[in-house]
Structure formats: C-alpha cells, structure tokens
Amino acid sequence: MQFQQLQYFVAVAETRHFTRAAAAVHVAQPSLSQQIRALERELGADLFLRARGNITLTDAGEALLPLARRILADAETARHEVQELVQLRSGRVRLGATPSLCTGLLPDVLRAFHDRYPGIRLLIEEGGSHDLVRELARGALDLALVVLPLPTPSPALTTVELLREDLVVVSSPEAPRPGGGRRTVRIADLEGERLVMFRHGYDLRELTVAACRAEGFEPDFAVEGGEMDAVLGFVRAGLGLAVVPRMVAARSGRGLRVTPLARPGLHRTIALAHRSDVAPPRAARELQRMLLEH
Which domains does the chain have, with CATH numbers? Predict the structure, then answer.
C-alpha cells in the first residue's frame, strides 16, 4: 500500500468522480485509475462501485476512508514538524527593542538563543516603542519588546507581558549622594538636581518627566538628547543623575552609584508584541518562548 494510492483513493471518495479526482491531485486520469486498481488488488476488495456517472464507496471503501484520511493527516503533520525543525537550522529573526532593553534584558537571552540555534541570524532594530509598533504593523519586524502602555494601542497587535521592572537612580561615585545620602531616593528629592535626560520619544524620558511633574516640579536637565550608552557615560563623567532600569544599572554599574527609589518608586512593564493577523515564524516563536522563560 503506497501513500500516493491512499491520496488518490481519498480524492476519488471525496469527488465521486475519477476525472475530477485526477485533476485535484494533478495526475492523468488513467494513471489514477491504475493506482486505485492496484490498491484494490492488494487489499483484495473493491473500494468503489463503478456505475456510469455514479461512483459510490463499497463497504470496504467506507471502512478504509477514515483510516486513509488519518494516515494522510499524520503524514502532513510529520512533514510540517520536520520543516519547522529545518527552519531552526537556518533563517532569521527580526526583533525590535528599546535601547534600554538591548542593554539590560537581551544580551543573556540572545546568547542562549544563539548557542542553541547558531544558524539563525538575529536582526535587531533599536527604537522607541512608538517606532517599533509602526515597524511591526508594516511587517518589518517579527517581534518587538516594548514598554506598556503602548503610545497608540492597536487591536492589530498582540502583546504578552514579560516583566515589571523597577527604575533606579544612577550617579557618579564622586558626586554628592542624592537624597542627602539616604539609602533610597524619593522622586521629590530630584527637585533641584541636575538630570541627564534621554531624547524625546524615549519611554524613560516620558516616565521620569511625568513623575517629577506629579510631585509638583519641572526637572532640571544638565544634558538631554542622548541614547542609553550616552546617558550612562555622561552620568559617569559627573554631569548629573539619571533614572534608568534596574537591569541596565546592574549590567552597567561599573563607575556608577546605584540608589533605589523609595516606595512606591517607579516601574515599567515590558511586553513582547507581534502582529495579531500573522503568526510569527517558527524561529521567532522559539525566541519568544525563551524570552518568556527568562
């Protein structure tokens, strides 16, 4: 019994017509008929009652049909699974992330992913959440790590929360301790302090400025407009304080004093986003799984 014979048998059973079945499976009608007869000889039973213009299943055909469909479905599943495994040996994942997440969260996860799937190219795009959402929507990214809430929520995107991260204050070890030397700093203690501030459109900028205004003051910027690495460098140089994610401070703590914010503090919620109408590629889904586990 050959796989192709079962495929031809199911096509005839579903169309009840040899010519239409042959067209459906892209084979000449005489070849299809020959294979059906060979299958019947092997099984020792007729599968169809052939009356002019009327093809019906025999009892043997009725018994074989669900089994044949199951075999064909299992074969398709096996083909799909093997193809997905092959995809994990090559291909690419296009991942967007905010610069702070590229510095804090991604290095360890991407190293683990690369060690497991060295044949997959990782294409990383840094940007603010607003820019990343736009790139996702136009199909330029498979996944994006964004900060919630999104600037423009969209039903076309699916988001899965990954973690809730604390923000901390970083300063130069040579500078006076913020907050009068206490072990924690309140947002109100930042009034009158010179801050090193991120560029416009940066999630951390919006969060910090909103927190200061909620305490009734406008923050004073010593330097503004930088990306994460630049901001940390300016802080190390003693130009001012900065509010950054805890993971970034932990990875970049060399040459920085890290002071937690007093309760309730500041937090941000990190989510993994992808398009709702298109499933991410297999390799991207595997990276998503590793991010969720991490």
Answer: 3-87 (1.10.10.10), 92-163+270-293 (3.40.190.10), 164-268 (3.40.190.10)
